[in-house]
Design brief:
Layout (H helix, E strand, L loop, with lengths): L6 E6 L5 E7 L10 H16 L3 E8 L4 E3 L4 H8 L4 H18 L5 E5 L2 E3 L1 H4 L6 E4 L4 E3 L13 H5 L6 H8 L3 E2 H7 L4 E2 L5 H11 L1 H8 L7 H4 L1 H7 L5 H9 L12 H10 L2 H14 L5 H17 L2 H11 L17 H6 L13
Parallel strand pairs: 2-3, 3-5, 4-6, 5-7, 6-8, 7-10
Antiparallel strand pairs: 1-2, 8-9
Helix pairs in contact: 1-3, 2-16, 3-15, 6-14, 8-9, 11-12, 12-13, 14-15
């Protein structure tokens, strides 16, 4: 095994029931995805799908910090400034991979340990066996950099209980493993210190026995406990309506929970066009039938963001200059027009297509 590779590809388990193992191997970057990593993962999954000796796949992240913090947005920043062609190709191939994972015919076990955000959600939350721990920190934080939730995230966000998905999408705030299970991003809770034993049991006895031996009842979901005010406040027609409802709600915030005022403050700090497009994208995704349909819509909104001022500016403020003071354009929610929003949903050229 080549330890210098950004994705470690190996096979384990007994000869009669082999398991394909994918380990994202950029721990210093919390295993952030690059275009070559997407290609490596896709190639391995394709090979294993055709190999009758492979019974399951397990995906994990190297190091202790997380499965994957997302895509390499600094690379996107530099590419966007010179036209964005490489970024469009990266997203094209990444979204094809997300769709492939969603229909993968063998058990696809994703260990969503630690930080699992953005692109990390794309390679885990569409799998068939999604495992979280008490250290899991999941999120779709795209609106904070002038982007729109992608990698099939809006498919899940649009199908959560009530409007929990809109809350997560518009604030960009992280949520717990227990929240992930409640919202449909994950299936099983395994304590962090038993993940190694969980994987060993998969290798020795298979996925079902590993789940039976190691999965536990998850803790209560903090978001689910707040659903009443979330459903009420996020029902507004526009983001401005939602922010006003959040500010007008007496949340009586419990310790350790984000209340409605904090949610309003977060949304108000995000890119106005990004949160406006995100609201529309999640609502449209609810009416799209398949993950592929949603990924095609997301490819369009991602390409729209690539053409925008706010994506480059958001990454600059957060990760390049790190002044945390983006100058959004339009600068306010009230300045965002319907035409501004609709432009993000125009067909891409070429559009994303799926050849099964």
């Amino acid at each position: 095994m080549d330890e210098n590779k950004d994705v470690l590809v190996s096979v384990g388990g007994p000869a009669e029931a082999r398991v394909g193992l994918l380990t994202l191997n950029r721990p210093k970057a919390i295993n952030s995805l690059t275009h070559p990593m997407v290609g490596t993962i896709s190639a391995a999954l394709t090979e294993w799908e055709k190999d009758d000796a492979i019974g399951a796949v397990v995906v994990s992240g190297a190091g202790d910090r997380g499965l994957c913090a997302g895509g390499d947005v600094v690379a996107i920043y530099h590419d966007a400034r010179v036209g964005g062609a490489a970024t469009r190709q990266f997203w094209h191939d990444e979204y094809l991979l997300n769709a492939y994972i969603g229909r993968y015919p063998k058990p696809y076990v994703a260990l969503m340990n630690g930080i699992t955000m953005g692109g990390g959600v794309g390679i885990s939350a569409h799998g068939s066996v999604r495992v979280v721990t008490e250290t899991t920190k999941i999120g779709m934080p795209e609106v904070g950099i002038g982007f729109i939730p992608d990698v099939g995230g809006t498919f899940i966000l649009s199908r959560t209980p009530g409007l929990l998905g809109l809350h997560a999408a518009l604030t960009g705030a992280p949520f717990t493993g227990a929240d992930a299970i409640a919202m449909g991003f994950a299936d099983h809770f395994v304590p962090h210190d038993r993940l190694g034993a969980f994987t060993e049991t998969i290798l020795a006895d298979g996925v079902d026995k590993a789940v039976a031996a190691h999965a536990e009842e998850p803790p209560p979901s903090p978001l689910l406990a707040q659903r009443e005010w979330i459903d009420h406040c996020y029902a507004g027609d526009t983001v401005a309506d939602i922010v006003a409802a959040l500010r007008g709600h007496d949340d009586g915030t419990a310790a350790g929970r984000m209340g409605s005022t904090a949610a309003a403050d977060l949304i108000a700090s995000r890119s106005p066009i990004s949160v406006s497009v995100t609201l529309e994208a999640v609502r449209r995704a609810a009416n799209l039938t398949t993950l592929e349909d949603v990924l095609r819509q997301e490819f369009r909104t991602s390409c729209g963001a690539l053409r925008s001022h706010d994506l480059v500016e958001g990454i600059r403020a957060q990760l390049i200059d790190k002044d945390r003071n983006p100058k959004w354009s339009p600068a306010t929610l009230e300045a965002v027009t319907k035409d501004d929003i609709d432009a993000y949903f125009a067909p891409a050229d070429p559009d994303l297509s799926f050849d099964h």
